[in-house]
UniProtKB/TrEMBL annotation:
<dbReference type="GO" id="GO:0005886">
    <property type="term" value="C:plasma membrane"/>
</dbReference>
<keyword id="KW-1133">Transmembrane helix</keyword>
<feature type="transmembrane region" description="Helical">
    <location>
        <begin position="82"/>
        <end position="102"/>
    </location>
</feature>
<keyword id="KW-0813">Transport</keyword>
<keyword id="KW-1003">Cell membrane</keyword>
<dbReference type="InterPro" id="IPR005769">
    <property type="entry name" value="PhnE/PtxC"/>
</dbReference>
<feature type="transmembrane region" description="Helical">
    <location>
        <begin position="128"/>
        <end position="151"/>
    </location>
</feature>
<feature type="domain" description="ABC transmembrane type-1">
    <location>
        <begin position="76"/>
        <end position="259"/>
    </location>
</feature>
<comment type="similarity">
    <text>Belongs to the binding-protein-dependent transport system permease family.</text>
</comment>
<protein>
    <submittedName>
        <fullName>Phosphate-import permease protein PhnE</fullName>
    </submittedName>
</protein>
<feature type="transmembrane region" description="Helical">
    <location>
        <begin position="16"/>
        <end position="36"/>
    </location>
</feature>
<dbReference type="InterPro" id="IPR035906">
    <property type="entry name" value="MetI-like_sf"/>
</dbReference>
<feature type="transmembrane region" description="Helical">
    <location>
        <begin position="211"/>
        <end position="230"/>
    </location>
</feature>
<keyword id="KW-0812">Transmembrane</keyword>
<dbReference type="InterPro" id="IPR000515">
    <property type="entry name" value="MetI-like"/>
</dbReference>
<feature type="transmembrane region" description="Helical">
    <location>
        <begin position="242"/>
        <end position="259"/>
    </location>
</feature>
<keyword id="KW-0472">Membrane</keyword>
Length: 267
């Protein structure tokens, strides 16, 4: 008798869970169909295109290794310079904005909301679009790439910096406030020590991403090895294109390796 009572008492709840699961599955199925139709995903089209991919890869083989020493060393170094300079300037812009965009340290709600919207706008525009804008503003060359990475990077870093500030322990801050310490001293001795490891991890991740992006900014005239990549493809020099791809892959792999080592040191 007791077992039947328990079953009857729990049955409506179990039935509600079952209907919720069925509704979730139906929504997921409809969403999947909508995505497939909207993006025109087709396995048959991919299979039909495999011969063209094979033909393109065969045209790139073997890579012209000599082209790396002849033309790609300087553009590769320039891509690295663009990434480093863009990251440095992004940090300089993101630090003050992050303190204004952190709810627990912002002077008032007006500064908080305005700073948040500035960060949203900055990171909401893709680097390639920003590069096109800055190429039109300052002309072709690496400076446009630096500005694109700076603007977008400031938005990304500022958001993560602000979130790290909001997650800190308020105890040291309250203790220093009770002792009558000034705001700069509180930030220097109670906030910075708590957020520094998180900030360094985010900076390394952003630098890694910027090196990847800097290799393709040349496609829109913003300097770096991307310009050589675009040129070789337009001239149908696929062996040289393969050489560009090898250099880009080497830069990405080296960045991943160095970044992982630095993250371990930070931890």
């Amino acid at each position: 008798m007791m077992r039947s009572y328990i079953f009857v008492a729990s049955w409506p709840k179990n039935r509600f869970g079952l209907w919720t699961a069925l509704a979730s599955l139906l929504i997921a199925a409809v969403s999947l169909v909508w995505l497939v139709n909207g993006t025109e995903v087709s396995v048959a089209r991919l299979i039909d295109g495999l011969p063209w991919i094979k033909d393109f890869v065969l045209r790139m083989a073997p890579p012209n290794i000599a082209y790396i020493g002849e033309r790609l060393v300087e553009p590769a170094i320039q891509s690295l310079q663009i990434a480093l300079m863009g990251t440095l300037l992004a940090i300089i812009l993101a630090v003050p904005l992050s303190f204004l965009a952190a709810e627990n340290l912002s002077p008032n709600s007006l500064f908080y909301h305005c700073s948040r919207q500035v960060l949203n706008i900055a990171r909401g525009i893709n680097e390639i679009i920003l590069a096109l804008i800055f190429v039109a503003a300052v002309g072709l060359g690496p400076f446009a790439g630096v500005l694109a990475l700076t603007f977008h990077g400031a938005g990304m870093l500022g958001k993560f910096f602000a979130e790290a500030i909001e997650e800190i322990d308020q105890g040291p801050i309250e203790a220093m406030q009770a002792a009558g310490c000034s705001k700069p001293k509180i930030i220097l001795f109670a906030v910075i020590p708590q957020i520094l490891p998180a900030w360094l991890g985010v900076i390394l991740y952003r630098l890694e991403a910027n090196i990847r992006v800097s290799t393709i900014l040349g496609l829109v005239g913003a300097g770096g090895i991307g310009f050589e990549l675009m040129t070789t493809m337009k001239l149908f020099e696929y062996e040289n294109t393969a050489a560009c791809v090898l250099v880009i892959l080497a830069m990405v792999f080296a960045t991943d390796l160095i970044s992982s080592k630095l993250r371990k040191l930070v931890r």
